[in-house]
Amino acid sequence: MLIPPLEWSARWLSSRQAASGKGRILLRRFAGPEAYVDRMSPLRIAHVTDMHVGRVTPHSVQREAVALTNAQHPDLVVITGDFVCHSQLYLDQLTEIIRSFHAPVIGVLGNHDYWAGADEVRLALERSGALVLRNQHTTVTMRHQRLQIVGVDDAYTGHARREEAVKGLRKDIPVLALSHIAEEADGLWRHGVPLVLSGHTHGGQVTLARLHEIVAGKIAGHKYVHGLYGCRAGRQAEGAVYVGAGIGAAVIPLRLGERGKREITVFELGARPGAFEEHHSEQPALRGRKPTRETIAKRNAQVARKRARRARRRTIELELP
Ligand SMILES: [Fe+2]
Questions:
Q1: Core vs surface per residue 283-297: b (16+ CB within 10 A) or e
Q2: Rounded distance from Cα 202 to ligand 1 centre (Å)
Q3: What's the 292 CA to ligand 1 centre distance in angstroms?
Q4: Which of 35, 78, 123, 274 is the most buried (most CB within 10 A)?
Q5: pLDDT (tens digit per residue) in 143-152
Q6: How far apart are CA 129 and CA 77, in angstroms?
Q7: Ligand 1 centroid to 302 CA: how many Å?
Q8: Is the pTM of this model over 0.85?
Q9: Residue 249 CA, ligand 1 centroid: distance in Å
Q10: DSSP 143-164
Q11: How far lies 114's CA from each of 81, 102, 146, 234, 305, in Å?
Q12: CA pair distance 147, 97, nearest whole angstrom
């Protein structure tokens, strides 16, 4: 069987990484912001992002991510978008993977989900029992404690409606937000959200010589590239945001440098920062550069073009004898 070059290189790289021990998923652990302390006894939230279920990321990596997450015994699993790569071919596999988490799963969509078909990805997730928030919020009860979860839809493709997502939030119940694009945090903090969990950048994937800060920061214009930013102290106007490096990849599974490795992050909400050793503390944001309205409109049009192309293909298939 002839293996396409992309798939061949993906397999070769993943086998090389496995052989060298570099294919392992890192587990990072952080305390939540102080705003949660005294408002709850610790809740354990596992953050997984950018799974990119498809041919580039080996199925064994997805299984490993689920096993590592389950081993932490989280109260809740949150997934911040890019569930798939480019197509709907692996939606059944996605449903099966998400169903394997032992804790309830809540997620938001990312740009790749929009490119592949947002409604179809959402349905695949809902078949697994997961809840997908699209500019909405919900309240979950864990260990007799309530937590509001805000889900902002994908900002990269112009689907984020932050004001809609936070409308009706209660001040007397702690809140956590999810957004594929981390820069949405700036606006969410103003609504009293102390912590936002995000993805999208894959930590830059290649982080040697701080290359990720050049590529994802200077070139792509992200303020938040990987890890923890903002402020967890006190009840400040500015909250915190965490950008997970994620599990998968959309093009090539190359991940070089410690910050770019596949990652699952556990947040202990209600624990005080400094209560245990953490990988790093809050980092200063990069300068960043907001995408222009024209850029967002172009990305939005790209989603519409892909949707129309899928609809045309379906029509042609139906018309065939
Ligand atoms: Fe991604």
A1: eebbebeebeeeebe
A2: 6
A3: 21
A4: 78
A5: 999 999 999 9
A6: 12
A7: 17
A8: yes
A9: 6
A10: TTEEEEEEEEPPTTTT---HHH
A11: 10, 27, 31, 37, 11
A12: 25
Residues in the chain: 321
Q: Which helix (H) or strand (E) holds 311?
A: helix 293-319
> What spacing in Å lies between the alpha carbon of 274 and ligand 1's midpoint?
30
Report CA(41)–ligand 1 centroid distance (Å).
33
pLDDT band at 235 (very low <50, low <70, confident <90, very high): low
DSSP β-bridge partners for residue 29? 266
- Ligand 1 centre distance from Cα of residue 246 (Å): 7
What DSSP character marks residue 24?
P
Distance (Å, rounded) from C-alpha 284 to C-alpha 240? 11
Please give the distance, rounded to the nearest whole angstrom, from the Cα atom of residue 267 to the centre of ligand 1: 21
Q: Which residue has the higher pLDDT, 57 or 13?
A: 57
Q: List CB contacts of 44: < 8 A, sequence separation 6 or more.
A: 72, 73, 74, 75, 76, 266, 267, 268, 269
Residue 22 scores a pLDDT above 50? no
What backbone torsions phi and psi does residue 228 show, to the nearest 5 degrees? -95, 135
* CA 39 / ligand 1 centre spacing (Å): 33
